[in-house]
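Hey, resending since the last one bounced:
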Amino acid sequence: MQSITFLTALAAFFSATSAVAVPAADISEAAKNTLEDRQYGACSQWSSSTQLVGNGDPHQNYLHKQLSQTITCDQENGCSTGQTETRSYTIGFSITGSPAEWISGGFDVSTSWTTGNSYTCNGGPGDTVCVFQKIAHTAYTVQNGAYNSCTGFSPSGGTSIIKSPNNNNSGGGYYCVVGTCRNQGDEYWEE
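The structure tokens again:
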């Protein structure tokens, strides 16, 4: 007789606890989808994605590139270097690490910048003169991961830094160097 009472009490307990309603606000959107939706619908479709880490920690870096040949003025006369001695270069973005794709991160940047070659620099007698361009880049931190419309972005692996040329070379420009020229095409970073 006692075992029947125990089983009856146990059944009453489970029927009472399993009937508790969960407020709809406590159920995530992904959990509201049916099992079939979660397994075969948009929730099961993952794609590779590259996204900013936080705000991306944006900061400016500058690539300095010598556009012209080095001209040495004679000892009595000044001279100039200009379009005939200057080349145009296309400067692309650079990446440390391996993001799945280039992204702008919402910054005013592009995948490349073309320097042009319509610049002239003058030197005095005995000067060595050349044309440089400072190409302004925005550097920002990104991370690879996977994305789906139900759960959002899921990061994986380490972070990478993308350096992208600013649109219209905003913050950069060409300048003349006297005395410390290098070779045409040489470049260095100012970070």
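The chain has one domain: 50-190.

Sorry for the duplicate.
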